[in-house]
Amino acid sequence: MSVLEIVEAAPEHDELLYRIYAESRSAELSAWGWEESEREAFLRMQYELRRRSYAMQAAAAEHSVIVWNEAPVGHLIVEEGESSIRIVGVALLEAYRNQGIGSRLIASLQQKAAKAGKSVVLSVDAANRARRLYERLGFRPIGQSVPYTWMEWIAGDEQAMVLHDSARTDRRFVSRAAGGEGGAFPPAGEGDR
């Protein structure tokens, strides 16, 4: 049985979180022709600036590590407000992409939001392939801040995708973050790979 967990990020996760960030920028930086040491210095600086920016702009956000079958595979930053759950950041290590992990993760946040009567909002770079995933999961564009598109999912939206049938699951979702609760993770649909 495959298990997906969300654990509160701790200092021992710092190098993993940096590695996830560095992987997300690797294609972009490889085109620049820099030496490895130059890329590393640039990425470390950018990672630190991003970390500080998140601390200022989303001070109440929960920073978590995504764990798949006991292996840390990604990060998730979520900020919950009165009327919405905002996905501030989410990324998986390249080796774990296109396996339905992200779909199940987002679907769990949608289920949590639906139970609380909230929407789920996020922003995505217009060129990011993840935008298609969000659209499949029922997110709709609500604004633009070039190069980002703001998207929102609202439970009950007739155009939104019906969430996966959680009664038919062989996977479990466990949240070990402070005050978190676990629940069944819906199985991946046909388009989630």
Tell me about this structure:
By secondary structure, the chain is of the alpha+beta class. The protein has a single domain (3-192), classed as Aminopeptidase. Helix content is 32%, strand content 30%. The protein contains 4 helices and 9 strands. It has helices at 14-30, 36-57, 101-116, 130-136; strands at residues 3-8, 62-68, 71-80, 84-92, 119-125, 140-145, 148-154, 172-175, 183-184. α1 packs across α2. The longest helix is centred in the N-terminal third of the chain and has 22 residues, at 36-57. It is globular, with a radius of gyration of 17 Å. The two termini are 17 Å apart.
**How are the strands ordered across the major sheet?**
6-7-5-4-3-2-1-8-9
Describe the oligomeric state of these chains in a short phrase.
single chain
Output the helix-strand order. EHHEEEHEHEEEE
Average per-residue pLDDT, rounded, comes to: 81
* CATH fold type: Aminopeptidase
Provide a short characterization of the protein structure:
The protein is of the alpha+beta class.
Task: Map the helices and strands.
Layout: E1 3-8, H1 14-30, H2 36-57, E2 62-68, E3 71-80, E4 84-92, H3 101-116, E5 119-125, H4 130-136, E6 140-145, E7 148-154, E8 172-175, E9 183-184
Parallel strand pairs: 1-8, 4-5
Antiparallel strand pairs: 1-2, 2-3, 3-4, 5-7, 6-7, 8-9
Helix pairs in contact: 1-2
